[in-house]
Structure formats: C-alpha cells, structure tokens
Give the backbone structure.
Amino acid sequence: MAQQFVSDNTAGVCPEAMEAFVRANDAGHELSYGEDSWTQKVCDRIRELFETDAEVFFVFNGTAANSLVLAALCQSYHSVICHDKAHVETDECGAPEFFSGGSKLLTAPGIDGKLTADDIEALATKRTDIHYPKPKAISLTQATEVGTVYSVEEVRAIATMAKRHGLSIHMDGARFANAVATLGVSPAEITWRAGVDVLVFGGTKNGLPVGEAVVFFNKALAEDFAYRVKQAGQLASKMRFISAPWLGLLNDGVWLKYATHANAMARRLYQRIKDLPGATPLFEPQANGVFIELPKAVRDGLRDRGWLFYTFIGEGGCRFMCSWDLLPETVDRLADDIEELCG
Ligand SMILES: *Cc1c(COP(=O)(O)O)cnc(C)c1O
C-alpha cells in the first residue's frame, strides 16, 4: 500500500529497530520472560535517557500499558481524571475500567485537547461524599489526541494540583517522542521532574514493530506490576524481540530523529493547506498530526483519489497523521490534491 495519513501506525519498522531485532535473533538462545541480556540493557538505556532509576516494563500495546498502569494507581472504587478525547476514554474498549475492576473515568473538555489544573480541581472537588468514585489519578496524553503538546509549565501546574488532592499522574506517551522533539527539553524535564509518576513510552508509532515501555518514576507504584502484566497476558516469553528493537531507536537519538521528521512533515502539510479556500485549521500542529476542516466535496474527492484519513473530530474535521518514514513527496502529493479540490 502507498504511504497514507490514516494513522502513524500504518508505517513499517525503522531499519535501526529491524537491525537490532535481527541481531537479537542471531545472538542465539537467551533467557525468557525479560531475564535476557537485551531487556536488561534496554531498561538501563531507558533509565539513562530519563536520568533516573525508574522501573521499566514492556507490554505489547498502548491499550494494555495504559489500562494496567491505571489499574495499578487505582482501587476499583477510585476514579481517573482525563480529557474527554483521551485514548483511555474513547479508544480502549473500556480496558482501564476492566483491568481496574471498575475505576471510573471522569472527563473534562479542555481546549486544544489538554486538561488544565482548573479542570482537575473542579473534578477533584466536585463531590467528596461516599457515593462518588474517589478521584485518585490523572491521565495526560502527550502529545495529545489533537496534535498539541503540554508545556513543562502546564504539566508542572497540573502536578501541583495533583499533589494538593492526592492524585498520581499517568502520562500516555504513545507519541511522547513527537512531544519531546517539539519541546526541545530533556525527557526527564517533561516527565518526573515535572511531577509525572508513570509514563507509557510509545515505541510503535515511533518506528518499532510492536511494544510499549512502561516507565515508573515513582517506584512504589510499580509494586506487583509484573503480576498484572502476566495476568493480563502481556508478558512476552521471548521478550528480547520486544525489547531489543528499542536499542535501535535509543542509539544515537534515532527516536528523536524520526519524531522530528514526522513533526516536520505535519508542518509541511499544514503550511501548504491551512489558508486554502474552504479549509479551517482546528488546532495548531505541534506534533505529527494535522487537524483541519475540509468541505465534503474535498473529502470525497480525496477518498476518490485513494487517500485514507480519519474524520472523527466534529463535522468535516479531517485528521492527517504523519509517520516516521513519510516522504516529503507524499506530503506534497496530498497537498496538491487538496489544493486542486479546494479550487
Ligand atoms: C495509538 C495510541 C495508543 C496505543 O494504542 P494501541 O492500539 O492499544 O497500541 C494509546 N494512546 C494514544 C493517544 C494513541 O494514539
């Protein structure tokens, strides 16, 4: 299939990750269930990257990572504060509620896809009686579902509010690399130094074949997490094939190189189409997605020409996601088509 914009997981595996995968295979037998030397090495590399002694786990996908983390942060009678467009709310088939045994998600409709400290305060103090699920955690998506990015100051403000109300902070970083590339800060600065307790560090959309890393900065919260992973069917016996590809991404800043490229492709598309007649940009692209309203005739015309993209944001709102390997020529072809169709 030709390069597409429907999601950043339509792309394949980056060569660096593939090379590490093959090397792990060529190295012969290894211990299983994460006891292998590759997994140990990647955990150390992640601790180095974040400049702290975090506990690291690997699971197959983002839904498992997010929902198992939220289950670890909450009892069944607790609740999680998140944005109403959060993946945990809209795209995980109730897995956070399922794995936590019933923790309810409390949502707020913050602008630009972001929660604010005020939203959190309002939800955390709305009720304090026994009949309401007690707020216990906050889930932030970085970069957000609408291609924006929380600044360090915004996360810090949220963390201050979280502390005041005894809430821990989970960060869904399916596109963490894209956020870091935009912010230009160290991974530590936008996570634990800003008050984040647990990060789901997404690898799949960044160029891995499969697998997300769960990084507990607050190690007390990681107690028994390994058992949750196993019970959920998320413990890979040949874990080296999930972990080793991370070396390909983490060596020489490859993860940031690809995220920077994907972000640049989104900017390139945005610059070409934002002022076209009939086009209305919905959000300022700060990561690797462009969200823009296009007239129905343009959307239909694009589909007739074979372009795949989502339209789930409001009436006519199109989402164009840019992958790690997207070619500038692909962006230009899409932009040419949109321009022509907009007349
Ligand atoms: C892609 C994505 C995930 C992970 O989804 P899976 O399909 O379960 O791997 C999680 N959060 C966000 C915001 C995503 O975009």
Q: What stands out?
A: The radius of gyration is 20 Å.
